[in-house]
């Protein structure tokens, strides 16, 4: 386990404390052989501790590198102290035993070798190793061999197999040369060295390494054949063979299980080899597993539970090409359950049951022909009926039951499907789970139950799609096929007993619920299904024997409306048109059916006022759905116009927008009491109606639309109207009339008009320009349905603009704070002045002197209002020319 940051910090502090302790002892100890030896003993132990807390170089992470470097730095500092004392000690050779000095030197250099290797400097490690007196008369070979083993293991873990072999072979050579030394634990050392060497040879895999591996294994089996580590190594070697010896593998595996003193580490190792043994013999693998289960200590319940869960895990993780005998798996599971019962384990933990159910669910996802899936089906039935799995998460069992019921349908096992669904309904609240509802519906196709099941929630869209498609297929079969097989008769019998209204509304209500929950409805097949269901519903109204209530009509209309709304919100705009058209026809057919119901029903007095009230509410609700659909139609067609290029299609959309808005206007009073239109809706309707009227050249109604919008005008609506007038092609006279109508609203509203003052000059500019253009047209325009005289009215419009501008400029000259002022642009004043004086010249040419003088004077006033040198030049120019005329 990797040390967490807090442990690393603690280790670093401990190492620094050790370094300080060595330094203090060095300072306090006398400079004589006993003092030197005392410091060296502490220094060696402290250095080992520091190097022991440091990870090998290959395991270092970025976050741990600094801490490990600090550990090695402490070790180096300690060994530097030891080096000084060792040098002093060597000067006192006559005073101490030469063998003791040699042992201390060997231990020092071996620690330096180990430190160099941990620092990632194998070259330094090799150099320092040459200084160790291995051939001397040393009595302390223990540390040399131990450090070599430690370095070899570290190199093996780091993947440095050649380096590992080198150091381990040195250790083995040193051990063999000193077997007679009593201080050595030679058997333990030999086992460690040869085992690690064998692992390194096995990793390399060369012919030479394979030969050496064989030699090491022979020695290990001869001397230490009963040791678990050697037996595990044997298993690994057998496993790596091209054609593993099955009998030998199971012999060794059985020996490990029977004699092993259990630890969690060995438990996991053995479980891994049992899983591998499934490739050699599934039956023997299960025997080994059962033997392992029986050998586990009774008090280790968590081990027993983990071992039990390995049964399904081993089966689920086998390769596809491996054929697993169902009988062997059934026996293995029964034996494992019997063992739990013998041990007095009535139920495994909740977490364990959850793991078991999860494995089974994964196995059930295997292909239908897979033996793994068939085994899972049997185990599921066993699990749901066995008390040992009672302590489980409700959701896990619920999901397993649903999956098992679904598979039962695919296996045509309707009896078991019914049993499972009955159990689900008894144990769970299933009304809000559409997957269960779909399964119940499918069961009804093969049972004598009621087919019409209300769907509230969808877990997987594919389930409801299949369900709806099958339903519609069967109803079509009922109508069109006169010569059906017995199987088809049996499948269609449950539907035959349903009313026609139920048959029409079931797919619609189920799909509407699915779309509302937004569960997997982005696929193209769902979109196509929506069209199919809507067409199916529409065709249902053509049935001559249709018996339907007002409430059923209301549900059909509402579900159709919701489906269209979902498509509009979730899919590209062009996909909404078809649904819009079909839904519109369904609503119209529903209203016609409602009228026929009213006609066919005797107009007798209801039995009580409550019935009359309910009937009236249903009627109002049905009409209100149709009323709301008109708003949806306006919104969809308005957006379609924006993306449409074809002029004919645009014309059709605008025509239908006008028709829909006209219907809304007609029905508005009927619903205004309980469902009044808000300001935003009114603005939206007016904007779409105005644009459509201009596009369709309905000139007579445009001024009315402008005037009707006066009470809820805002800046956005005002700008939209103005943009439509300026964008669409029409005669200048129409533009002048419509802009004038809008400006009149501005004048009446005054400061209450929610329009930016900066926009006024632009509106006046357009009105002035189009009014003069309409007054002096190059080609006379025949105005249709407009009670305005031409061209005098247009001169009056332009004249009113000048008067407004002059008033605005007069307010501009007042002291600040005298009220709301309009700052009029100088450029606009110049344009109006020049255009007014030019119009005066036109009147002079037409011999209308009075009008000429009036317009000329207004032009001069506008030029004076500029208050710029350019304005003064215009005033002089206008006055000079006017004096020349009169």
TrEMBL record:
One of the Pfam families matching this protein, by short name: SPO22
UniProt cross-references to InterPro entries, sorted A to Z: Spo22/ZIP4 (IPR039057), Spo22/ZIP4/TEX11 (IPR013940), TPR-like_helical_dom_sf (IPR011990)
Top-level division of the source organism's lineage: Eukaryota
Entry keyword annotation includes Membrane: no
Keyword list, A-Z: Meiosis
Transmembrane stretches, start-end: none
Biological-process GO terms, alphabetical: meiotic cell cycle; regulation of synaptonemal complex assembly
SUPFAM superfamilies named among the record's database cross-references: TPR-like
Entry protein name: Protein ZIP4 homolog
Organism: Penicillium cataractarum
């Amino acid at each position: 386990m990797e040390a967490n940051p807090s442990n690393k910090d603690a280790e670093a502090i401990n190492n620094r404390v050790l370094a300080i302790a060595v330094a203090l002892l060095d300072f306090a100890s006398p400079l004589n052989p006993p003092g030197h030896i005392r410091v060296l003993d502490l220094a060696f132990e402290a250095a080992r501790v520091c190097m022991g807390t440091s990870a090998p170089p290959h395991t270092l992470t970025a976050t741990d590198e600094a801490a490990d470097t600090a550990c090695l730095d402490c070790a180096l500092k300690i060994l530097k102290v030891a080096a000084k004392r060792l040098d002093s000690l060597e000067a006192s050779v006559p005073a101490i035993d030469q063998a003791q000095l040699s042992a201390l030197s060997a231990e020092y250099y071996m620690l330096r070798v180990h430190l160099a290797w941990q620092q990632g400097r194998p070259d330094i490690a090799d150099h320092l190793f040459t200084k160790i007196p291995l051939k001397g008369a040393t009595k302390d070979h223990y540390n040399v061999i131990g450090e070599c083993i430690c370095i070899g293991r570290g190199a093996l873990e780091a993947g440095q197999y050649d380096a590992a072999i080198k150091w381990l072979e040195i250790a083995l050579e040193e051990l063999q040369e000193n077997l007679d030394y009593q201080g050595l634990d030679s058997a333990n050392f030999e086992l460690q060295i040869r085992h690690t060497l064998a692992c390194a040879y096995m990793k390399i895999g060369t012919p030479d390494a394979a030969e050496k591996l064989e030699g090491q294994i022979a020695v290990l089996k001869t001397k230490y054949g009963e040791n678990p580590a050697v037996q595990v190594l044997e298993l690994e070697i057998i496993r790596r063979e091209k054609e593993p010896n099955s009998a030998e593998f199971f012999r060794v595996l059985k020996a490990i299980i029977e004699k092993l003193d259990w630890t969690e580490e060995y438990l996991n190792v053995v479980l891994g080899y049992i899983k591998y043994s499934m490739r050699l013999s599934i039956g023997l693998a299960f025997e080994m597993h059962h033997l392992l289960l029986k050998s586990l200590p009774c008090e280790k319940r968590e081990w027993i539970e983990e071992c039990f869960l390995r049964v399904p895990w081993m089966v689920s993780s086998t390769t596809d090409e491996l054929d697993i005998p169902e009988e062997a798996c059934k026996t293995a599971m029964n034996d494992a359950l019997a063992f739990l019962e013998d041990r007095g384990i009535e139920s495994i933990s909740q977490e364990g049951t959850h793991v078991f159910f999860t494995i089974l669910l994964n196995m059930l996802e295997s292909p239908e022909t897979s033996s793994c899936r068939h085994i899972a089906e049997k185990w599921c039935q066993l699990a749901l009926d066995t008390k040992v799995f009672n302590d489980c998460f409700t959701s896990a069992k619920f999901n397993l039951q649903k999956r098992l019921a679904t598979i039962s349908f695919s296996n045509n096992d309707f009896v078991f499907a019914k049993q499972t669904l009955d159990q689900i309904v008894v144990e769970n609240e299933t009304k809000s789970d559409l997957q269960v509802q779909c399964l119940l519906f499918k069961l009804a196709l093969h049972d004598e139950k009621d087919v019409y099941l209300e769907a509230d929630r969808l877990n997987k869209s594919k389930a409801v799609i299949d369900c709806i498609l099958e339903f519609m297929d069967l109803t079509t079969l009922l109508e069109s096929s006169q010569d059906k097989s017995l199987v088809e008769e049996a499948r269609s019998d449950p539907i035959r007993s349903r009313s026609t209204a139920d048959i029409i509304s079931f797919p619609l209500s189920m799909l509407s619920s699915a779309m509302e929950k937004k569960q997997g409805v982005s696929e193209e097949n769902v979109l196509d299904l929506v069209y199919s269901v809507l067409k199916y519903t529409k065709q249902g109204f053509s049935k001559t024997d249709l018996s339907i209530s007002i409430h059923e009509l209301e549900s059909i209309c509402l579900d159709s409306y919701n489906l269209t709304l979902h498509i509009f919100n979730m899919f590209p705009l062009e996909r909404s048109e078809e649904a819009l058209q079909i839904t519109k026809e369904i609503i119209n057919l529903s209203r016609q059916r409602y009228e026929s119901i009213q006609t066919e029903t005797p107009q007798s007095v209801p039995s009580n006022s409550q019935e009359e009230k309910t009937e009236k509410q249903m009627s109002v609700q049905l009409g209100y759905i149709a009323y709301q659909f008109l708003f949806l139609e306006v919104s969809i067609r308005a957006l379609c116009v924006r993306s449409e290029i074809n002029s004919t299609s645009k014309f059709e959309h605008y025509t239908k927008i006008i028709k829909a808005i006209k219907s809304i206007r007609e029905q508005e009073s009927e619903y205004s009491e309980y469902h009044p239109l808000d300001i935003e809706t009114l603005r939206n309707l007016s904007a779409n109606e105005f644009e459509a009227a201009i596009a369709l050249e309905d000139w007579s109604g445009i001024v009315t639309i402008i005037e009707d919008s006066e009470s809820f005008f805002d800046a956005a609506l005002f700008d939209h109207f103005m943009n439509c007038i300026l964008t669409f092609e029409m005669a200048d006279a129409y533009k002048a009339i419509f802009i004038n109508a809008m400006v009149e609203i501005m004048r009446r509203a005054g400061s209450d008009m929610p329009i930016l003052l900066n926009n006024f000059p632009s509106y006046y500019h357009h009105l002035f320009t189009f009014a003069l253009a309409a007054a002096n047209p190059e080609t006379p325009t025949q105005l249709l349905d407009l009670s305005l005289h031409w061209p005098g009215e247009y001169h009056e419009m332009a004249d009113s603009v000048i008067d407004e501008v002059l008033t605005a400029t007069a307010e501009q000259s007042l002291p600040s704070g005298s009220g709301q002022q309009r700052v009029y642009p100088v450029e606009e004043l110049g344009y109006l002045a020049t255009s007014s004086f030019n119009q005066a010249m036109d009147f002079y040419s037409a011999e209308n002197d009075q009008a000429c003088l009036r317009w000329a004077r207004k032009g001069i006033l506008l030029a004076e209002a500029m208050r710029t040198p350019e304005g003064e030049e215009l005033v002089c120019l206008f006055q000079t020319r006017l004096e020349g005329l009169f």
